[in-house]
Amino acid sequence: MKNNEKYKPLKKSIQHEQKNVLTGCVAFAIAILILVIQGSIESVTVWSFFGLSMLAASIPIGIVGYLLSIKVLNTERVPIVGHQRTEGVAGLAITLNIVGFLFILWGFSRVLTIVLLISVVFSIWYFARAMHSWDAEIASWEEEAKVED
């Protein structure tokens, strides 16, 4: 089986939400960079400079992801590769945003960074468990449907 045959695109409603999250991530990165330009936030350590670089990189990547999302959502038939690229670039932009913010925070307050990092890790863990349960339930429904046929 090819990888494309196993892949299932996200539902349209989730794709809309993903586009909205991308908008928020780009806006957040721009707001942080504006604070840096104003001098409210200074990159005093290598970590915070690295975080600012990641936030700066997430802006064009997020914009590309947003534009791809618009194209995917406004097209009736989208090839699998279109869905995969859109989800990949959205995930990259969101990841750069979160990790970049953690690095910036590390330069200012390590305790706050550790608290935020722990909450991010547990959120991802919870999400992964929820998705695993969801997929298992869907698979059992599909098995039941095959048995009935």
What does the model show?
The chain is an all-alpha fold and 149 residues long. The protein is built from five helices and no strands. It is flat, with a radius of gyration of 19 Å. The two termini are 23 Å apart. The model has no long low-confidence stretch (mean pLDDT 84).
Secondary-structure map:
Blueprint: H1 3-6, H2 12-38, H3 46-73, H4 80-108, H5 110-148
Helix pairs in contact: 2-3, 2-4, 3-4, 4-5
Structural features:
single chain; mainly alpha
Give a summary of the structure in a few sentences.
With 149 residues, this protein is mainly alpha-helical. It has helices at residues 3-6, 12-38, 46-73, 80-108, 110-148.
- State the helix count: 5
Helix content: over 70%
The total of beta strands comes to 0
Shape: flat
Distance between the termini: 23 Å
What do the pLDDT scores average to?
84
Listing every helix as H and every strand as E from the N terminus to the C terminus, the arrangement reads HHHHH
